[in-house]
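Dear support,

I submitted the protein below through the web form. The confirmation email said the job was done, but the results page showed an empty box. After a refresh the structure appeared. I'm attaching both so you can tell me whether what I see now is the final result or a partial one.
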Amino acid sequence: MSFDTWALIVVAAFFGLVVFAGVFAGALLPVSRAIDAVNLRIGKAVTWLVLFAVLVSAVNAVVRKVFSSSSNAWLEVQWYMFAGIVLLGASYTLLRNEHVRIDVISGRFSRRGLAKIDIFGLVVFLLPMTCILLWLSWPLFANSVIRSTAGTTSHGFAEVIAGLFDSSGWTRSDQAGGLIRWPALMLIPIGFLLLSLQGFSELVKRFAYLKGLITDPNEKLGAHGTN
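What the results page shows now:
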């Protein structure tokens, strides 16, 4: 299938998504609330990684200075936790409306106008980006679980899940004492999947607000750029 054909399919899919979310916004609100609940729980759990990362960093620094001993594993654990904070916390940030807005621009619009801008941004920028990165990140994770052979370009979902229980194919860090790679690489598709779902939830809420079904989703959490 040519690139032009794929592009048309993607554009048609997102156009259909807008129509679907707009027409059935009221019926989709329970789905939106379920997505919000999942990302809220994950986000609150991920906040503990900040504390753990600080503790690991402090202990690692003390041991290195006092006992002149350290391990790359501890350094990589910090990287993994930081990756978890960013990737798993992105959807929570979007849910809380704590992402950065350009106040000079957004502050000039009414609440309904800002909701329309949000719809445009979600459909044209956020959702295409998250879906593309989700698609591109899966092979990175799959290849860290199953060692690819010559001529192999991709691995099926069931094959990858089975590979999680067979350590012979796991890719490890090239640093001495380093960790296996797949837990960190797994965070990438999971993070963008959660962000895609939250983006869809926000899209539904913006349409529902414009229909008068709910209060302003920006107002309830004190989003930036609102009055």
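Response: this is the final, complete result; the empty box was a page-load delay. The radius of gyration is 21 Å.
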